[in-house]
Amino acid sequence: MSDILIVERAKHFLSALRHCQVLGLRVMQADAQGLSLCLPYSEKIVGNPETGVIHGGAITTLMDTTCGISTVCFLPEMEICPTLDLRIDYMHPADPHKDVYSFAECYRVTPTVIFTRGYAYQDDPQQPIAHAVGTFMRLGKDAHVKAGTLRNKA
């Protein structure tokens, strides 16, 4: 699959997630090796108004989304893959007034589960804010979301 198609898939997936639109998440890069997103700094995501430090929930959302959408970089067809498990290890708080970037990749794919790993950073990927590992359930290419419920096409 071409890198252009992978980027389009990632953007399409991201555009369907309302909370990601509110946060302003953007696709920075997507290819067969993985996905990079950007979480722009804004006052809406500040966890401590005195320091301007970004709330951990915004970083968690960034990491869950990056790991989840990285599945479209690897799978030959679009599939719905909800989060089964996500572990995030925070290394240090994000610096105030700076965007946060993330990268995630799929490192193992089975018929039922996809395993991902990634990290969040600001200026230097070698100085991560957080590391994440996640597992995502494969529902198959025929699974659809309709009116808030998940169903398999039969």
TrEMBL record:
Q: Does the keyword field hold Signal?
A: no
Q: Does the keyword Hydrolase apply?
A: yes
Thioesterase domain residues are: 52-127
Pfam families annotated for this entry?
4HBT
Alphabetical keyword list: Hydrolase
Q: Which InterPro entries match?
A: HotDog_dom_sf, PAAI_dom, Thioestr_dom
What is this protein's name? PaaI family thioesterase
